[in-house]
Specification:
Elements (H helix, E strand, L loop, with lengths): L1 H13 L6 E2 L5 H6 L4 H14 L16 H7 L3 E2 L8 H8 L1 H8 L8 H10 L2 E2 L5 H5 L6 H12 L7 H5 L6 H7 L3 E2 L9 E11 L4 H8 L16 H4 L8 E10 L2 E9 L11 H6 L1 E12 L3 E14 L27 E4 L9 E9 L3 E17 L17 E6 L8 H15 L5 E22 L2 E12 L2 E3 L4 H8 L14 H4 L5 E2 L3 E2 L2 E13 L2 E10 L13 E10 L3 E10 L36 H4 L7 E11 L4 E13 L5 E14 L2 E12 L10 E13 L5 E13 L3 H4 L15 E15 L4 E11 L6 E4 L2 E4 L3 E14 L2 E18 L18 E18 L1
Parallel strand pairs: 1-2, 3-4, 13-16
Antiparallel strand pairs: 5-6, 5-35, 6-7, 7-8, 8-9, 9-10, 9-11, 11-12, 12-13, 12-14, 14-15, 15-19, 17-18, 19-20, 20-21, 21-22, 22-23, 23-24, 24-25, 25-26, 26-27, 27-28, 28-29, 29-30, 30-33, 31-32, 33-34, 34-35
Length: about 850
Amino acid sequence: MRRILVLILWLLSCGVLFCKVDLNTAGWAELESLPITFEQAQAIYNYRFYISFFESVYDLRKIPEIDQATLDRIKPLVTVYYYSDLDDTEQRREEIYFLLERLGSQEGIQEGFTDIWEDYLMTPRDVNEMHFTDLLNMPNVSPIDAVAIRKRTASGDKVTDYRNMRSTSGLSFYGASNLRHYVHYGDIKDRKERSLNYQFKYEWLNFSDETREMYREIVKNRDDSIRDVRHSYWGYFNLDAHKPAYTNKYRMRYKEWKAGAILFNKVGENAFIDNKPDQNLDNAKYFASYESSFDLWGKNDVKVYLGNYRVTFGEGLVIENTDYYSSRKTGHGFSKRIIGITEDLSRSQEYALRGVAAELQSRYFTAAGWFSQDKKDAVVFNTNEDGRIDANDKINGKYHVFSYYTPTIRFDNDDLNEADEFFSSRLNESMTMMPRTNILDETMIGGRFEIKPFIGTHFGVTATQILYDNAHFVVPHTDSLYAVLIRDAAEYEKWKKVDSQIGNLYSTYKEGVYDRNYRTVTGFDWMTVVGNTSFQGEYAELTVNGNETKIGDDPSALVLSAYTQFENLYILSLYRNYDLDFDNPYNRGFSEQRKFNNTIFNNNNYVLTNQMLFDLYNNSPEPQAEEGFYFETRYRFSRYLTLNRTYLDIFERKADGRRTVRFQGDLDYRPINQLSLRGKYKHQINRYDDGADRQRSTTSETSGIVTMYLSNRDRLQMEYRYTQVESPPYPYLTNSGEPSNTEHHAAGQVLMHGDFISIDWTHNLNDRLRVRNAIAYWNGHSLSHWDWEDVEIDFLGEQGIKHWILIQNKIANNVYLSLKYKTKFYKTKELFFRTWWNVDLGDYDGSADHFRHVERVENEARLQIDWRF
């Protein structure tokens, strides 16, 4: 009777007969009014405040003070409504948390793109108001998908939700599913009010074996008996104790205004915490932008940028300013280009643009213009022959420059002058060519005009002119060029036909022929979509001696492609043809290999007058001059069987006429959705048209991959890979200086093979914490293996084992942490070991093994924190 009376009194105090207390929002007075003790009310309040909101009434049993009898008594009196303490922006982040996490860790793959796509995620736009190019710039959206949506919205048939968008004629399921997180349907206000993001990165990394070899190559004469590593750039700059990389990035938005800045240093460089403010500012980039729309014969979008920005049009032949090379960049799928002018907070330095840019986009045309002034790194001739680069090296007020240069480490110029003076004194002669930072004054003026008569069809013209106020680009004639690049006349035979790439670099000065201070590149590109096929291409010319208004009388580059899409199939065909002397430093067109591949810069860099010229190849973002056909497809036969990205590339290198065929196939069988059985095969033949040529080599790679998709988004993956390489022997490296019947002959073929095995496990401990573990073992048998690690590629040594662990944690609603640690034990060929030169005789035992196998232990760590407001 007493319990009934208490219950009636409590119901009357509510004022409404069926009023229930929401456990997630109830105040202290409401909790106290329940038929429970003071201690029990306090326990409920503390659980909600310090531990978690309630998802169900039965969560009360998780509280020790609430027994079953108490729960039965108050269950009719309480309820649980969904409650979140997140605002609209934070809820948006919750919805796309996994996409943001993936983009935040992919900066090494799509350098600079992740910021833009993350901004698109956080500020989705009305799909009914987007231009064709806006849709095309979204990840993995094809031209056919973009046309399908744009034709529908242009006809007045608005998209109202995702299911309604899926019904759009011609829109693939893949395109719609990739687009949905980046758009809304006019049902919400654009989230463009305000946002602030901060990202911090700490990276303790090791140099690649090739970079180590470059810096450790001892600077000496042929008869020099000193073989101390201190007499190399590695020893001089004490790179055994190199510095880690830091990155601080800030981005903000307020309505139509955006701004951002990045301050960073690469591994081995002085950081912003070091006491070198001038050099630290060299590693700073910033931008401010204004974006708006107005109606005049339709919707028009305007963008204006100050500071650092990125420009990309067409197939990237005229301009795409990034420091990073990407092979087989088709512009489709995962090798997308973001067309137009966008902000640039990437870590690109050499080809960064800084100044002012603007773009106007309407239904029927697009117009853009940009102006940039910046200092660039370059390889400079030491014309004064004093072992240093300064004003005394200028001729008629101008430096003589050989080429743009992207260094692995941007040393201070004063430090480089001191180092080169030291090495020149040991050589009793000066180095003829020396890399320097911020030595070249570059001014770029560019423009773009594009007409769009139909949806999905455009024709555009792009032109850039680059002015050099303080330097001439000078490339000696081939007869003397190798003498400038190679120190010892006995090594001139290392100069091969493929090195004609070097002799065809662009010059602004040639005595008695021309004297100019500019480089001009013009081009036109087009696209049209017919049914389920898009046709696109670009043609560009570099003005040398021809008429700028005439087509075909100057070095040129051409890309043509066709992309056909079905619901479960796509087919891409591409043709490219680049002239050998088309030397546009901002060309990022499709290619199989980067510029200077197999030249003296990377194959025989130990004979160079300056070992750091290796970076001309190692960090070159330009494609090599090649002509060829590329075919790519993906076909989903059924829900069980899919032919993943498969391609065939047949091309010829222009420098020496070497013809190559490369094929890769990838078949994925899923007997059940949670189990993937993949087989991959790669086959490449260099000089396939001539079996007797010494450059002929054959590479085959077979992989088996088993992936199990477990509960709670966990994943377990195992891979085994077997590689074979058949190539001619290299007795000048593998044999001793004395004749012997037991050593390799100069003719015939050598077969090398290697194995690789790895296990990769991802475990989600909860919605906020994920751990990924991987271990790999390989035995190269003179081959070099590679491993795709998380979001980066790792080139492995001769033989070894490695383990890495990645922890990703959402430590607060707007704070994300990623921590990776790797340890690697392996053998490598430290330096090419030559008994007749560059050998520490104390390590040489007289055997025919002319490589010093070194066991190395490397540890690396990465820390990344993202703070998003």
